[in-house]
Amino acid sequence: MLELRDVSVEYGRVQALREVSLRVDPGEIVALVGSNGAGKTTTLRCVSGLIRPRRGTIRFQGEPLERERPARIVHRGVSHVPEGRRIFPRLTVVENLELGAYRERAATVEQRLDSVFGMFPVLRERAAQLAATLSGGEQQMLAIGRALMAGPRLLLLDEPSLGLAPLVVRALFAALLEIRRAGVTVLLVEQNARLALQVSDRAYVLERGVLVCSGSSAAVAADPRVLRAYLGSEVEAVEAKRE
Length: 243
Fold this sequence. Notes:
By secondary structure, this protein is of the alpha/beta class.
């Protein structure tokens, strides 16, 4: 479905991505993990057309994406939920959602609204409220719902758990599995490596713009480099008990 091959991105003299190659197959949840500044957000922005790679190719369903405009990429079936949600605070919940399907017919909009409200019932309850009045978790649900209103085949999610309470995070990740069951493929960027590896099928690890590890999520979670770098506190606790 999605393939990046030898993608490189530079910000001035800083190389944000260096010959990154990855794939996302239909029906998968693929996690992209790494520390701040590793290049995770840059990777998503390349796919959604917000930035263009210096070198390399990006293909979605066999067709090139790297020179397409963002609006065209959405129309082709890729929706991006950016870090920080980026909702419209002075619009209502339902107005935010309708903007996600601004190109669609009224019947399609209503059908997708019902689908989003079924996935996030709290948004139905808050439909007439201004988005600014929602809690952080509700705003994240709204951002995901707005992306789903475009009817994507591929959903790009950037740090959905950022700043949210654990209970809300669990609800969001449960919704992520429901989104996959609905037939939407997901590329997930998430600093919480433990959660990302639990919910995903496969994973890639980025460090300073370079892919250093990839494979099934179970295999990546067992890799000593990942254990030390991203699951370190848990490993140290286990080793302390052994001693």
